[in-house]
Specification:
The chain is about 10% helix and about 30% strand. It has about 220 residues and is mostly beta strands. It has a single domain, classed as Immunoglobulin-like. The strands form two sheets. The chain has a six-stranded antiparallel β-sheet with strand order 7-6-5-4-10-11, with no helix packed on it. It has a five-stranded antiparallel β-sheet with strand order 1-2-3-9-8, with no helix packed on it. The structure holds calcium ion (2 copies). The site of one calcium ion (CA) has 7 residues, from loops.
């Protein structure tokens, strides 16, 4: 009597014991970053500071990576700690809500100089020659993320972009034609005009030529 149900209940209990409810799994990475084709720029930890401002660990880049699978470009930034508004000093929270994690691409002779509000200022990069044509970024305050390209006078947004953050790792995936010999760097910054713009940290290196068959050509190029 009721034996089947008893057996079923016992079996259910056994299954529940063997396979307890899993914690939400971490999202799969957007790319297999262990592959040999991944380019990595290392950057020291502990170097994020703007002027006399405080050190802010969640704006501290420790590495940046790029890969290309023939169709999509993948970028990744790793930070010293998991990014959070809680890491921002109380008196700076309102201002730093707009702080950005960005990838800055130079893919042609045109582009924006570092006088543009969205382009970070990096002392040893000559942005008279190395003008920025595209930006992939994400905002600390609300994680609004964008892929934007330079249209000659401004950066124009598009939504053709995937973004993911897992702990202290940020990843972007975008279908775009950056040409065969583009360069890129990663930076954390607060956009603004003149002295209101702050560049906190960056990771930079030279990018060897990468073919881009089949990728969508950027408008305006
Ligand atoms: Ca750093
Ligand atoms: Ca350019």
């Amino acid at each position: 009597m009721n034996r089947p149900w008893t057996c079923l209940a016992a079996a259910s209990l056994a299954i529940a014991t063997l396979f307890p409810p899993a914690r939400p799994a971490a999202a799969a990475p957007l790319y297999d970053w262990g592959r040999a084709d991944v380019r990595t720029y290392e950057d020291p930890a502990g170097d994020t500071r703007h002027g006399r401002g405080p050190y802010i660990a969640c704006l501290d880049i420790v590495s940046a990576r790029h890969a290309f699978d023939g169709t999509y470009h993948y970028f990744r930034i790793d930070l010293a700690v998991e990014p959070s508004m809680g890491d921002i000093p109380e008196e700076l929270k309102r201002q730093y809500y707009d702080a950005r994690y960005g990838i800055y691409v130079n893919s042609g002779p045109d582009g924006a100089r570092d006088t543009d509000r969205y382009v970070p200022q990096i002392p040893w990069i000559d942005l008279r020659e190395n003008r920025i044509d595209a930006i992939l970024d994400a905002k600390l305050g609300d994680w609004n993320h964008k892929f934007r390209y330079w249209n000659g006078t401004d950066f124009t947004g598009t939504t053709d972009l995937a973004f993911q953050r897992t702990g202290a790792t940020l990843e972007w995936k975008v279908k775009a034609d950056f040409g065969a010999d583009f360069t890129w760097h990663a930076a954390t910054m607060l956009p603004g005009q003149g002295p209101h713009k702050k560049t906190f940290d960056h990771a930079y290196g030279n990018q060897p030529p990468i073919p881009a068959p089949g990728a969508v050509r950027l408008p305006g190029r």
